[in-house]
Fold this sequence. Notes:
Keywords: Membrane, Transmembrane, Transmembrane helix. By secondary structure, the protein is mainly α. The protein has 7 helices and 2 strands, in the order βαααααααβ. The chain starts with a strand and ends in a 19-residue tail after the last strand. 25% of the residues are buried.
Amino acid sequence: MQAVYADPKLIRYQRWRQVWPTPIVAIIATAQLILTFLIVGFEAWSMVLNVQYSFFFIGDITSFFFTITWISTFTVVCCNRGSQGCAIHALVENILSIIASCILLGYDAKFINQPDTCLWSAYACRDGIWTGTLGTLWSSFGTDTMKAKLVALKLQLACAVLMLFVSLLFVAIYIYTSLKVRKETVMIQPQTTIQLVSPPPISLQTTTLPPI
């Protein structure tokens, strides 16, 4: 009898690859990619309309973390579906994306509630050095810059909410997969195989009787 034990690391790798929902994660990565470009676009729109009443390019700063996040998530989808270490790296990036989304939500909500908030220096806020030329340009087209800026920030706020949701979804998927794989790995017990050994061949001997 010979005992053979399965490698727990190999079992965990195989189960992780089987349980990990690659199509859903691919949708999450694609959504993060699209939302990142939308947030950058709405930030540019907002800044062009009115730079004076802005929040230090907070949309561009948070988009840096969003970009790293969707790259990491795509890496899990394309290259390392069975690697829990790669998934952990994407998990950390998604947690940072959650924090960045909350910061962006806070700033956008603050400006929507108080549109005349100016965080630049007192000189820049008082004299309006940021908006002299652009303000004249938009006025010539009959554009209400403050109203248009509020529309841009509301759309950016909606994108930040969606980014927060998809990042939380990734965290939930990782926790579910990790718990399921760990539970199934613990339930698998080492299996014993029995090796049968064939008995030696029986030799038949013929006995010659003496003549009568």
